[in-house]
Amino acid sequence: MAQRARRVAMAATMAVAVVLMCGALLVRGRVGPGVEMAAVEGDSAATASSATSGSSRTGLYTAEQHSSTLAVLQAFAAAMPSLGWTGDDFCAWAGVTCAASGVTIAPGGATATGTLPDLPDGVDYALVMVRAVELCGGGATVSGTLPASWSKLERVESIRVCGGDVSGTLPTEWGSLGTLRVLQVQAASVSGTLPAAWSSMAALRTLTVTAGMASGALPAEWASMASLVQLYVTGTPVSGTLPREWASMASIARLSLSDTLIDGTLPAEWSALTGVTNVDVARTRVEGPLPTAWASMTSLSNVSVAGTRVSGTLPPEWGSLPWFTFFYGHQTQLSGTLPPEWASMRFLTRVMLHQTQLSGPLPAEWGSRDSIAWLSLSDTQLSGTLPEEWRSLYRLHSLRLSRTQLSGTLPASWRSMLSISELLLSGTQVSGTLPPEWGPMTSLATVDLSMTQVSGTLPPQWGSMRSILQMMLHGTQLSGALPATWASLPFIRTLSLSDTQLSGALPAEWSSLRSLQVLDASQSRLSGTLPPEWSAMPAVTSIDLHGNSLRGPLPASWSQMPHIRTLLLSDNDFCGCVPASWTAVATLTVDVDARHRAADCATTYECGQDSSSSATTTTEEPTTPVAPSAASSSSVGDCAAANCVTCQPGSSAACASCATGYTLMDGQTCERSGQGGTGVRTTGVAAAVAAATVAAAVCLVSV
């Protein structure tokens, strides 16, 4: 034995030496040149970088332009000392960008702190090259009032000022900024009215005002802003009506006036705005009907009147709008029916009409509009059946019809809705069975048929819904067993089956539901025992099975669920005690009948012989069984010796009895029996040495 040990040691030493030598050759012959080349390239890059870093571009401007522009930038530097702008070469300052077209001030980041500066007198502003002042985003924290003196910037094209500490009023003087194209003021403390004088901004294309304290009316004078394309006045307490005069805005495309106090009706005169694509007056006090005349707004694509007092019907005439895409009319007083004519809208994608007074049927004609992706019609008075024709809505992503008067059965033909991910029919009069044909709807993520008249069994075919995340079927007439095939739902997180007629056992196969977090099958007719196999569920946090006919012991192994937080198991027929392993989990809340916590629970409510084979209930911490080795089907306890069936008493490393095909050597290790009875040692050390030797040989050949 000593001689054999020496041979093993010698082989190990030689293998290690060869590996070290091979590694050195590899480093020298292959790794080295690459590293050296990378170092050279890095030096070259650093040299190139240093040649361009901090370079000046003030040569773009004349001496007079440079000095005039410098005077303005020095005013910013004085008002915002954190910028650290010093010297005369402003093109080298951080946050200043120079180009032939002008200078952009965009410090951004935490350095943009301080006040908004007044601009100096005695400067020829025709020579000031400031093109843009960008003080939004990047963590800028500016304060002070909006300076009227900025109206001196004769070349400025963009002014953006954002910050909760900016105050004062919107300067009337800015109306003289004839070159300004973009103006954005987002400041909760800015007050005053929207200046009518701003109508003189002849070049303005985008105007955004989110001033939390601004008031007054929308200026009718702004109708003369001939270049204005986008107008956003949102989140302000401006009031008054929508100016009919704005119908002459020749270039306007987007009008967003949401979250304001404007009232009155939607002007029919705006039908002249043939270039408008978006009108948003959501969450305002606008009332009255949707103008039929708007059918002539040939570019109109998006309209939002959500959360307003708009009433009346959906104009059938709007069906001729060639580009209409989104309509948000939810939480309004709209009534009447869904116009079949809207099926002519070739690009109709999203219709949101929940929480309205709409009634009547779902138009079968809409089934021909395969562009529809979102339909939200919940909490309405819609009635009738689910149209078979809607099976052609193959782009439909979300269909929300909950809490309506809809009835009839679930069309099996809807299986062709291959894009649908959300189907909500909760609280309707829908009846019949769950169509097995829906199994191939592999995009379906959420199904809510709760509180309906649906009956029959749970289709095993639904186990093919590979994308399902939530299945809400509580409060229905469903019956029969829980399908074992649903164990193949890989992503399901919430499964609600409570208050049904479901019966039978809990499938042990559901232990493979790796994503399941919440299971509620309470108040049903389930029977049988709690499967110990469910302890393998890695994501489950809550299991509610109260109010069933479940029996048997409470499985101690359920404490092994790593994220379990709630077990609701009262009103069943369990035996025995709450396992000590459950009470040891501090974050676990367990609701069981009081008898399972009584002092005599182990004797008075002792589990019978018929249930003891499926699970073990104890008041002590349960021991974890050890899996048998591959060489034997019998338990080996804590024995760690390789190929050993039974270890010597008091030792986990010394074997007493080897597995079949192995011979006990030196009184404690097992060797495979070879030809002529010669033992071949299979210890981990020898195997490692052999592997290292082979690896070393391969390495030498490759070098």
TrEMBL record:
Residues 611-630 have a biased composition (Low complexity). It is a single-pass membrane protein. Its main location: membrane. Residues 1-29 form the signal peptide. One of its GO terms (cellular component) is membrane. Coiled coil: none annotated. This is Surface antigen protein. It comes from Novymonas esmeraldas.
